[in-house]
Every structure is written in C-alpha cells, then in structure tokens.
Design goal:
single chain, 242 residues, alpha/beta, Trp Operon Repressor, Chain A, 2 domains, two-stranded antiparallel sheet, 9 strands, 34% helix, 17% strand, elongated, binds S-adenosylmethionine
Length: 242
C-alpha cells in the first residue's frame, strides 16, 4: 500500500512516520508513505497556495492550481483521492477496513479557511474524522493513515485487529495485565483459571456487556444471533436494576 499526503506542513508527519508500528511497517516495505509539500507545485513566484474568498469573508482559501498539479503528478490508475474535511462522511472503522484494501491513497490536507469548493472535481471522496473543526487536515490525515495502515496484512498480528473494538461492530472485552491484585483491584478470577473455554465464554459475554453499557448506539448496526439478542436484553434489564 502506498499513501501520499499533500500538505503545506510535511514536517508535521516526521514523528508519526518515525515511530513505533508505522515506522516498522515502512521499514518492512509493507507500506510506503510520503508527505509532499504543496508549495512545490505552486506556479506563483512566491510559492503562494492561498487567496481571498470571492464574496468576502474572513480568512484565506487554498487555491486549486497547486492542488490540481500535485494530484495530477501523484495520481495513478487505481488511486483513491481523499480530501480531509469537516464536511465529509464520517471516518469509521468500517471505512478503514475498506481503505486498507486500496493500493494507493492520496490524502489532501486543507488549511486556513479550507479549499476552493471546486476541489470536488479533483477528488474521489471527502472524509471527516468527527464533528469538530481543526486548524488543518494534517492530524486527520495521520488518523486515517494510522487506522488504515494497522489493518494492512503483516503490519500487526491479524488476530489482534480481528478482536479489536469496532472491527466487527462490537466493543472489545476488558483486558488486564499483571499484577492480578493492584491495591485491592482484582483481575476477574476466570482469567486466572487457565480454562480456555470458560475464558472465551466470559470474553463473549463481556464484549456484549461493554457494548450495551458503553456504546448502545452501535447495537442497531450489528447483526446478532438469537443467543446474543437474549443476552443483550438480560444485560439491559440487569443494568436497570442497579
Ligand atoms: C479550519 S478547517 C476549514 C473549515 C471550513 N471553513 C468549514 O467550515 O468547513 C481547515 C482544514 O482542516 C481540515 N479539517 C478540519 N476539521 C476536520 C475534520 N473534522 N475532519 C477532517 N478534516 C478536518 C480540513 O482539511 C480543512 O480544510
């Protein structure tokens, strides 16, 4: 997988690309990820990439010419060009799973007041990382890249992403590490039992419980078995009693 990021702050990405799992994925050549300076594509003699908005108003807008030229240079036959924007569709784990199957993603980071709206003619889609406005698309580009890269086969242990929260709609069960007694806070007995079957049963139950109690909004989008549906009702009615 290849990811190209178009930004006026490529240096923003240095620590992201040089740390931990992303660094290893790059070193192992599972992914290649590059941040490109948008100003390098500006035909303006001062390398300007912004201008005032027609109709007036506060702030500056990014102009089309440098973006058009950068996209044209980087785009390949199967590229997916994504604009990061608070106006886009919400980025989710489901979307990350889809994007992890792409061979080439181009991420465009806006800045200032955003980008000339005619950018829609040069992109494939617009993604938002949440309902709030950030100063630029660099953090959103890192979020999208990070969520996608860890799902590319070989980057992390696949069993680990398979059981992750949201991967199949559910939240993950709670996890604990040593010591088993920390200031009187104990690890559930079943996890110390060594009984694999009982542990699996407990984890399944806790996965449901976590989802019902922490993110019941997710339940409507999950296909449930009859056993799971019954268990969910049980958890809901028990939580009302507390
Ligand atoms: C200050 S914002 C521009 C917001 C724009 N004036 C609006 O109201 O829609 C500057 C840039 O930050 C990025 N950005 C801000 N919030 C974002 C979000 N929630 N998701 C993705 N990108 C975002 C976009 O690239 C955007 O062009």
């Amino acid at each position: 997988m290849k990811i190209d990021i178009i930004t006026i702050f490529p240096e923003f990405f240095n620590p992201f690309l040089e740390t931990s799992i992303i660094k290893r994925a790059i070193e192992q050549k599972i992914v290649s990820i590059n941040a490109h300076q948008l100003r390098d594509y500006s035909k303006n003699k001062h390398k300007k990439v912004d201008d005032t908005p027609y109709g007036g108003g506060a702030g500056m807008l990014m102009t089309l010419q440098p973006l058009d030229d950068a996209i044209t240079k980087l785009r390949e036959k199967n590229s997916k060009v994504i604009l990061l924007s608070p106006q886009g569709k919400k980025f989710t784990q489901k979307k990350a799973i889809k994007l992890a199957k792409e061979s080439h993603i181009i991420l465009i980071c806006g800045h200032y007041e955003g980008i000339d709206a005619r950018i829609e003619n040069y992109i494939d889609e617009e993604l938002s990382i949440g309902d709030y406005v950030l100063t630029g698309g660099e953090i959103p580009a890192m979020i999208v890249s990070d969520a996608v890269i860890r799902l590319v086969p070989g980057v992390i242990h696949e069993d680990s992403s398979e059981e992750d929260s949201l991967q199949n709609g559910w939240l993950k069960y709670p996890q604990y590490t040593k010591p088993n007694d920390y200031k009187g806070h104990l690890v559930p007995e079943v996890l110390l039992s060594g009984n694999h079957q009982e542990i699996m049963k407990w984890r399944e139950e806790m996965r449901l419980k976590n989802t019902v109690l922490k993110r019941s909004d997710l339940l409507k989008n999950i296909k449930k078995s009859d056993v799971q549906a019954k268990k969910i009702e049980e958890i809901k009615s028990n939580s009302k009693k507390v």
